[in-house]
Design brief:
- By secondary structure, this protein is mainly β.
- The strands form twelve sheets. Strands 11, 14, 16, 17, 20, 22, 24, 26, 27 and 29 form a ten-stranded mixed sheet that branches. It has a five-stranded antiparallel sheet with strand order 5-6-3-8-9, with helices on one face. Strands 15-19-12-10-21 form a five-stranded mixed sheet, with no helix packed on it.
- The chain is built from seven helices and 53 strands.
- The chain folds into six domains: 162 residues, Immunoglobulin-like (Sandwich), CATH 2.60.40.680; 130 residues, Immunoglobulin-like (Sandwich); 71 residues, Immunoglobulin-like, CATH 2.60.40; 96 residues, Immunoglobulin-like, CATH 2.60.40; 90 residues; 171 residues, no CATH class.
Length: 748
Amino acid sequence: MRAVKKITAFLLAMVMVLSLATTAVYAAGDDAGMNIIFDNNAPQAGDTITITLNVNRIFSDAAILETYLDFGEDVTYVKTEFLNVELNSRMIDSSRLHIYGWGDEDEEIAQKVKSIPTGAFARITFKISEYAAGKTLNFRLRGEFDDIDWDTLNDWDDNYSVEVTGSTVEKPTATGYTVSMGADQQVAAGQKVRIPVTVASSEKKITGFNAYDMTFTYDPAALTLNTKTDDAANLTVKDDNGTVRVRRYGATQALGEALALDFTAKKAATSTVTLTAAKFDIDANSINFDAPDAAISDADTTVKALWNVSLPDGFLSTAANGSTLVENGGDFTFKTTDTHYEYYLNITTNGATNIVKMDNATYTIKNVTDNVTVTVDNKIGKTYTINYVVVDNTTTENKATVADLVAYTATTVQYPNDYKFTVKFPGTGYVVGVGIEPDKNKRDYVRQENGDYVYTLLGSSLTGDENNEITITLTKRENTSQHKIEVVGSGSDAFSENNALTFYSGENYTFTLNKNDTYYDYSVLVYYWQQNIGGNGGKNIHMEYKDNGDGTYTIIDMPYADVTISISKMAKAIDPDAVEVSTYVELDNKTVFKVVVQGSHELLNRDQTTYSYTWFTYDGQKMYCNPRYTKFAGNGSSSSVYLVMVDKGETLTKEDAMAKLGIVTSTKQENLDQLLEVGSDVNEDGIGGVGINRRDVNDVQLIYDLYNGLYDSFETVSMRKFLKADVNYDGVLDSQDAVKLAGELLAD
């Protein structure tokens, strides 16, 4: 209903502006319109108590009643009885009652509010807790009478209390503990196993415990109990040949893990640790009660101990789960993650060590009856043979040979050495594809300025086939992949018209920039769009290029995609062609001129991560960044603006403005306070975050006052507000700006 109130207030304000009508406002009286009366000022614990809501006065314009009664946990709400006028009553939560009535003037509920008489209005019944003896019951009554427009006629907010008598009754504490054993575990023989025992309570007020008594059983032939008596922790442990009784007392411990049993697996065997009995309780109950039995939700934890095979780095179990554990008498197979070597291994088990050669990628240890340790004794890198194959798919009669397409010096390579070879440039309009088998061999390549490619098979990934051979296939074909060049950015005018706007993929591309180094710094980025596999989105891939130092740039190895060349420029001196001076608004005794400088404020450097920034100044003051006056939208340009107020009859020439313009450069993005947000909040009462636009009729009024000359000083109305008054972005301040904003308000 508060939202309704705010909307109503806004609509009334608009009507007031448009019609110049007035609205009556009522003030609250000095005395509260409602209070409460207790039927018993000395109630006893367990009794019921009735509170009467008493209306002290009624207002002829009252159409809305809203009141809240807050109370504590020592009473329980029973019912509400209206004595003369039936309104609405609801419980918001367990400690707050809401009584209300509202509606339009002709609605039934509004008429009911108007007809409320003075005196007893409603009776509210509560039940007092039997454990509340000696406590104070606190109540808070707050609310208001409003007229049909939600204007407050009278409000109240008062606190009331009453003391509870009777004999003190001790409230028992329930516990509702439930205990469970930890999950089943699988460990290696000879290793420790930790079994947590957790406790929870069904009672919300129980958050911990003080004492417990638990009994467990386990197989001493399979497990050794490591958990011992800890006097410092008030913990006693008694182990009677596999039957363990654990007792604890002391400070409150939070619910959750109550105990962790620590065992060592003696051998490869399966055994069970069982919780047979459990008692838990809190310290408050120790005065009069024995600890009650706790419920056991999960009594068993199975421990499966297996023989363990310890493997060196670079070797893994072939088991589906990668486990290095094996049952007694079972076989264990492992593999190497690096197949580039011939391995000699030490296998130690049952007190003996044997050296074996691992000829294949896997090795199997038979009949495991003890823990096993595997280490590497020696390894020798494999030698791979290089085979070249040429496939010429061109239409020429003389087919290419290996010598025509490749230069190489060796036909073998030993892991982990790199292997290099050069694929010769086949001529413009042709391309040579390189295929390598096995395809697990990773390659790198560098395009030379003469068009050759220098390939490197990385030694770290050298892999041969079953015969330890690597096959390099060279496929020559016509280059049918021709793509386009797109030029963007604030410095795109520097891109020479003689530059080619198409290229062949895989070849080099050179372009020329005609830069105006007198007034601007330039930055060049080259990138292409790479679609994600499946066609869902993608990303820009940035390319390296060579600055030849003579105004030309060379991109090595053009991609199989259209390429974008982004040229940005940032002013380092004032360019006269970028400066404009015009009349902004004529005042009674003043003329306001607008000075605009076109130019980007930031320059993305070639490293693609750092920026350079510039900011224009006028007479030493920061100019405002106003994207609304940018002439070249969409290419990275921006604009800066400043207002100059002179006496009537004086003027401001471009030469005058040029003499006062300056530039500030920085490596940090500063002056964000000078950014003019696009919007209609002219008086800026909504400044405080992006997207805030609290425009209203006062913003229209301010525009009207500005172009009518009511304010002729930037000290009275800031330059920023003068600039924002140009809401139609035509570069002048006039009546059309007020008309535009007034129309927008009607459309809101």
